[in-house]
Amino acid sequence: MKFVFDLDGTLSFDGVTIDDEIKQVLVRAEEFGHEVAFASARSYRDCLGLLGDELCQKLVIGLNGGVAYHQGQLVHADYLDKDVYRQVLGFCRHYNLPFFVDDTFDYSGQILEKIPFYTGVDPLNKAQYRSLGELTDPIKVVIYMGGHEELVDEIVERIEKTNKAHIRYHAHEKCIYLNPADTHKASTVEELCGENFVAFGNDQNDIEFFEKALYAVQIGDFPALSPYADDQLIAKQNQPQAVAAKILQVFAEFRGK
């Protein structure tokens, strides 16, 4: 069985590390006849240090499905429609909105210090910051809307009308996330892993992922995800140990399936 794990809030609770106890369980997947993969909003470059040398060689789907690496090599990429991208840049420049752009490995943007995840970008210094003119094949755009929430509906509506992008507003982050049309975690997981997989996740961008999964385990209590979960782990104390135990339990339950 394929087991596909979200990272932040599911396996990592500080955005910097995954507890050794969780990693030790993940590398035991083959003992139960399973394979592990990872699916994150992060770029692959931002998963490297978090996963470590062994786990980063597994299938790693990044940018909410826009990119995938296996054994350290790019195996999948979906790119934003160029017209949509120009329209989004126009919005951001006109209103001076902070935004962050990813291609398969490098990045660009403006007022990057306002982006909620910026402190975790490229911690191993393996990528390059490029000018917008140099970054010609964008995959994902994140726009920070703090202080400009009144513009969210207008931006989302205009992009949705194009039918050329997957767009979602995360109110708790005050960020708009933009991906290529029909591209999200679930679409790429299904393409690369098949229809039968077990999902572990915690947040809004795991909803489609959970809908497609054979079995879905929610970590935490994000209310919008709960209706799509088959199982849920809410642990206020000893979270890494509890997650490791839950993974091991589900590995055992799906042995031979």
From TrEMBL:
Q: Give this protein's Gene Ontology molecular function annotations.
A: magnesium ion binding; phosphatase activity
* Entry GO CC: cytosol
Q: Which UniProt keywords apply?
A: Hydrolase
Which InterPro entries does the record cross-reference, listed alphabetically? HAD-like_sf, HAD_sf
The domain of life for this entry's organism is Bacteria
What's the protein called, per UniProt?
HAD family hydrolase
According to its UniProt entry, this protein's organism is: Streptococcus lactarius
